[in-house]
Amino acid sequence: MIAFVSILLASFLAPEVFAVIGGDLNCTSYNGTAFVYTPAAVACSNAISDASCAVLYAAPNTLYPAAGNDAQRAHACYTTATATPAAIVLDMKQAALANCAKTCGFCCQTDAYSCSNAVYPRLNCATVTLSQCNSVAWRTIIAQDCPASCGFCLSGGCVDAVTNCGNDLSICTTVGMQDFVNTYCQRTCGRCPSSTTSASAGTATTTVTSTCSSYIADSSTNCANWSRNGFCTNTFYTLAQRRARCATTCRIC
Ligand SMILES: *[C@@H]1O[C@H](CO)[C@@H](O)[C@H](O)[C@H]1NC(C)=O
Ligand SMILES: *[C@@H]1O[C@H](CO)[C@@H](O)[C@H](O)[C@H]1NC(C)=O
Ligand SMILES: *[C@@H]1O[C@H](CO)[C@@H](O)[C@H](O)[C@H]1NC(C)=O
Fold first, then answer.
1. Would you indicate the residue range of the signal peptide (predicted)?
2. Which DSSP string do the residues of 143-179 spell out, in sequence order?
3. 87 CB under 6 A from ligand 1?
4. 3-state class of 87 per DSSP?
5. Separation of CA 28 and ligand 2 centre (Å)
6. Of all helices (H) and strands (E), which one includes residue 5?
7. CB 151 within 8 A of CB 115
8. Using the 8-state DSSP alphabet, how is residue 206 labeled?
9. Which of 20, 51, 49 has the alpha carbon at shortest distance from 37?
10. Residue 203: CB within 6 Å of ligand 3?
11. Ligand 2 pocket check for 70: Cβ under 6 Å
């Protein structure tokens, strides 16, 4: 009887013991006792269906990567080996990144997250949370200053403030909706500022779509630095204020 109980206990306890990420520690941080996934590890969507990813990259211990947990990744996410420790095989990892980045807990290494944040961000990029990435109040500022923290690297510094503008594209041309779309659907409706600063290289790369060919002179000598810092698209300042200081650098007509 005692033997039977101990077998029961052993089989009950055994699966819990060795859940460590191991192998590839990208997109994780150390919480004091274990390596756990960062929020950015699972902040993207899989490129193919979640169900297909669960077949291709089945969790070794039933638990899948989630922010703060230490679920072991499927070996196929990063290696051709079938047991840890295993060397990273880049082909395997590229395939996982392209198809099932979320299931593999690799979102932080996808193109959308692979850029630098601004040199002088207005907020601490390291502490940006997932709810800030989705917040109307924060998104446009984060897109300019901390694009890598929210996966905004491919959006050139300009995102919609709300996430569902694309549900009804007719709002972009509806007369009574112009104030709304200018504020909340800038990207979807093509209302990004004429020069949108891309923070990725730490230099001001400008995409000019303005309609004039000359600008009034900058009145400040700091415009180059301010531009790098997101000033040209910073809606804390009115367009008139930005034009008054840095019309040429910001290319504001
Ligand atoms: C992160 O991934 C790269 C390849 O994508 C690999 O070379 C590197 O060793 C990994 N780093 C860690 C800490 O696992
Ligand atoms: C670290 O993460 C592990 C695995 O999720 C968890 O069991 C442990 O309690 C965490 N430790 C701290 C200090 O949060
Ligand atoms: C711009 O920033 C650089 C780097 O911080 C600094 O050395 C330089 O003096 C700044 N230029 C102006 C005009 O403030």
1. 1-19
2. HHH-HHHHT-GGGTT---SSTTGGG-GGGGT-GGGHH
3. no
4. coil
5. 13
6. helix 2-13
7. no
8. -
9. 20
10. no
11. yes
Ligand 3 pocket test: pick from 222, 223, 225, 249 the residue with the most ligand atoms within 8 Å of its Cβ: 225
The CA–CA distances, whole Å, from 103 to 15, 71, 121, 158 equal 21, 11, 31, 28
Element holding 29 (H helix, E strand): strand 28-30
Tell me the residue type at 225. Answer: N
Cα–Cα–Cα angle for 201, 187, 238, rounded to 5 degrees: 80
DSSP 189: T
The rounded Å distance from CA 222 to ligand 3 centre is 8
Amino acid identity for residue 132 in this structure: Q
Q: What is the pLDDT along the chain (253 residues), one digit of tens a residue?
A: 444 444 444 444 433 445 688 889 999 999 999 999 998 899 899 999 999 999 999 999 899 999 999 999 999 999 999 887 889 999 999 999 999 999 999 999 998 998 888 888 999 998 898 899 999 999 999 999 999 999 999 888 889 999 889 999 999 999 999 999 999 998 999 888 754 543 333 333 333 345 666 778 888 888 888 887 778 887 777 888 888 888 888 888 8
Structure token pair of residue 29: 């941080």
d(CA 71, CA 114): 23
Ligand 3 and 99: CB distance under 6 A: no
* pTM of the full structure: 0.60
